[in-house]
Automatic annotation (TrEMBL), chains A, B:
GO terms for biological process: intracellular phosphate ion homeostasis; negative regulation of phosphate metabolic process; phosphate ion transport. Residues 16-103, 122-204 form the PhoU domain. It is found in: Cytoplasm. Keywords: Coiled coil, Cytoplasm, Phosphate transport, Transport. Signal peptide: none annotated. This is Phosphate-specific transport system accessory protein PhoU. Its main location: cytoplasm. Residues 2-29 form a coiled coil. Belongs to the PhoU family. It comes from Luteimicrobium subarcticum. SUPFAM superfamilies: PhoU-like. Plays a role in the regulation of phosphate uptake. The keyword Membrane does not apply. Homodimer.
């Protein structure tokens, strides 16, 4: 019985990692779609989000099944409940990647971003891809040094989000109203993407250390 | 034993309703702060969000305790797992009310919203307050007619969100870049507020009917 349950918990971890890999791919492609005005890449991100959503549902069903059939306690229970939470965060990260891709698609063949914000968004996308990949690695290794780098990249995303506003609100800004709207939204999507990654990082830390995670504002 | 557990489930429901009442108050006050440029109201929403966050944590701890000690199955298990989900949605709704209040605070003593979008935001806030109050009522009564009205008000929020963009992107728009940014963000906050309310409504429907809830994009 215990052996089967161990295998089931292992499977839960594998499923989370697969979701996380898909999310990392999604944000990387969404970023390229946004920065290069690549329509087919944008379409593919939008289409693949359904797969991430399906994986969340399957993972949740599995968690509820495990709660019912195994009645886990202590660490096992924490793993199952945390998995429910982490799958929700990954699902939202997938949505946010899709939202970025939708901005790219809406303005195609024009690029959504004016030149003035391209450097900031390039950095923002690099940081988002990094956090997503590190979430995958953290789920694999539970190496808490990775959790720390995720927190740091999230701080960077917050800073770049502020920096975007700095560019948009400067007297030199010559973007159209549509560009202002798109830059504001896309920047917000990246900022939220980082928050969800941190939320996962804190849940993994909680599993490892037993210290309850603190939610971001 | 069963009697104690029944009382604990009852308490879980009461705690969710209290959270929901606080969220309804928060979005009502945040909307007034935004529309009337009322700084003290904005401050009070921002300060009270901590209380909502604390309630989520307490509710989650209680859910995990119940899972461990009662090992619920079937409907009871669904109630506990749904409570975990619904408390997360309510916590996010509280955050979004706080974000609206933060927009109001940032621009004080100026109102964040130019006249041209005030009618739309008035409707948006009315709809948001309605959905929050109906979530409270739905948690109390489990009357699925309320779930339907929440879905409809969410559709209205989506429509008003689009309408906001219509105003901002029209040739008549004379708002500053800062106003464009604030209107874009505040409108997005209301739109997400509605999504979370629908997510709760669907989870209650799931508890009543047994049909699995579908997440919004």
């Amino acid at each position: 019985m215990r052996e089967i349950f161990e295998a089931e918990l292992q499977q839960l971890g594998d499923d989370l990692r697969t979701m996380s890999e898909k999310v990392a791919q999604a944000i990387e492609d969404a970023g390229r779609a946004l920065l290069d005005a690549d329509l087919s890449l944008a379409q593919s991100v939008i289409a693949s989000d359904r797969d991430i959503d399906d994986r969340e549902r399957a993972l949740d069903d599995e968690c509820v099944r495990l709660l019912a059939q195994q009645a886990p306690v202590a660490t096992d229970l924490r793993i199952v409940v945390s998995s429910l939470r982490m799958s929700a965060s990954l699902e939202r990260m997938g949505d946010l990647a899709r939202h970025v891709a939708q901005v790219a698609r809406r303005t195609y063949p024009k690029r959504a971003l004016p030149e003035a914000v391209v450097p900031t968004f390039t950095q923002m996308n690099d940081a988002a891809v990094r956090v997503a990949r590190r979430v995958t690695e953290l789920l694999e290794t539970r190496d808490l040094a990775l959790a720390l780098t995720i927190e740091r990249d999230d701080d960077l995303l917050d800073l770049l989000h502020e920096q975007t506003f700095g560019v948009v609100l400067s007297p030199d800004w010559i973007g159209s109203v549509q560009e202002t709207v798109d830059v504001t939204l896309a920047s917000r999507f990246y900022e939220r993407f980082g928050d969800h990654a941190v939320s996962i990082a804190r849940r993994v830390s909680y599993l490892v250390t037993g210290d309850a995670p603190v939610e971001l504002g």
